[in-house]
Structure formats: C-alpha cells, structure tokens
Amino acid sequence: MKKWTRWQDWVTVVAGLYAALSVIWTTAAGSSAALMVVFGALLIVSGVINLAMPGTPVMEWVQAAFGALLFLSPWLGSYSMQAGVAWTSWIAGLVALVVTAMAIKPSTEEHRHHMVSPSH
Questions:
Q1: Name one Pfam family in it (predicted).
Q2: Left (φ > 0), alpha (ψ -120 to 50) or beta: where does 4 sit?
C-alpha cells in the first residue's frame, strides 16, 4: 500500500471533517456540539495517521471505534430526538465505520506481509 492513496481513509477524513464542521450549520442539542467536534476530529486524526502509515491494523480498529462512537453519540449525548444533529452523527459515523471495516482486512494483510521475515 502506498501512502496517501487509500480512498477509505480519505472518506473517513471527509466524514470526520463534515461531522466536526456541521456544528456551524446545525442546531446544537444536548452535548451534540462537543461530541460531534471531538469524534469528528478523532476521525480526521486517525484517517491522516492511516493515510501516512498504511498497513497498521491497530489504527484501523481505533478508527472504526471512533466511527462507532460517533454513530452512538446521539444516544450517549441525549440528542437522538433532534433530527438534524442526530442524522448527521448517524450518517457520518456509519460512513466512517463501513469504509474502515472495508480497509481492515487489506491493512492486516499488508501488515502480515511486512512482518514475515524472508527465509534463507
């Protein structure tokens, strides 16, 4: 895998950016603003790390966890009844979770490929 080329990580970065910035145009409810900014920023950071260091399965799982937490945040932050912010969290979190799940197996295979020592 080449650095900065995996579309799954770029999609995750965009989903995180959308979630973090959406507090500008959506009406905050409960702790929606804080959760969306925090989990959005964590998705951006984890996506950039995965783009810079492809083949790191642990980071893929961390990124998947951030996507899942963003998806769950309307219930965790008591804003599931506020349609705008809730749907933003659900969609951005689900997108990040699905594309990251698609990247876990290739990342794991890449990691194993580089960890296997050549036999002589």
A1: SPW
A2: left
- Which tens digits make up the pLDDT trace of 89-106? 999 999 999 999 999 988
Report CA Rg, the chain.
16
Q: What tokens were used for 97?
A: 């979770």
Taking the C-alpha atoms of residue 52 and residue 36, their distance in angstroms, rounded to an integer, is: 24
Q: How many CB atoms lie within 10 A of CB 41?
A: 15
103-112 pLDDT, tens per residue? 998 888 876 7
**CA 59 to chain CA centroid, nearest Å:** 10
Query: Measured between alpha carbons, how far is 73 from 58 in angstroms, rounded to an integer?
Result: 22
Q: How far apart are CA 46 and CA 60, in angstroms?
A: 8
Distance CA 95, CA 70 (A): 10
